[in-house]
Design brief:
Blueprint: E1 2-7, E2 14-19, E3 25-28, H1 31-36, E4 40-43, E5 48-52, E6 57-60, E7 67-72, E8 80-85, E9 89-95, H2 104-109, E10 112-115
Parallel strand pairs: 3-10
Antiparallel strand pairs: 1-2, 2-5, 4-9, 6-7, 7-8, 8-9
């Protein structure tokens, strides 16, 4: 477990989160994740701290509105979101690419789980993942 610091591109949004990248990350093929090229890691609420920029966040929701997708209203970068699932309860989906102090070696070593969100099948990898 390591405390990482993260931000949007313009640094208006800043956060820190306790993450074990060896526990893995996720890429999803749902309509939203595919458009934003999402690469996220799951963080428990007590392990996430927004340090700056709450008033600079805009929110987007769609479908069942189980997830809050936050993005910076200045630069448009999506550093994290909040979701509620029957399996995990409430969690933060932190964008791995927004971790400012994660080394290239740490990112390269982080396992990736591919999920079939487009079919609401979160326990099965899609047949094709090379485009994710």
């Amino acid at each position: 477990m390591k405390t990482y610091h993260g931000s949007c591109h313009c640094k208006a949004i800043r956060f820190e989160a306790d993450i074990d990248l060896a526990d893995g990350s996720m890429r999803c093929n749902c309509s939203f994740c595919l458009k934003i090229r999402c690469w996220a890691t799951v963080v428990k609420p007590e392990s996430f701290r927004l340090l700056a920029g709450e008033s600079e966040l805009s929110e987007y929701q769609f479908g069942a509105k189980n997830e809050q997708h936050f993005f910076c209203k200045h630069c448009g970068v999506r550093p994290f979101g909040i979701a509620h699932s029957p399996r995990r309860g409430k969690f933060y989906g932190v964008s791995v690419s927004c971790l400012d102090d994660a080394s290239i070696a740490e990112l390269a070593a982080a396992p990736v789980t591919y999920v079939d969100g487009i079919n609401d099948n979160w326990d099965t990898q899609p047949a094709v993942v090379s485009y994710l």
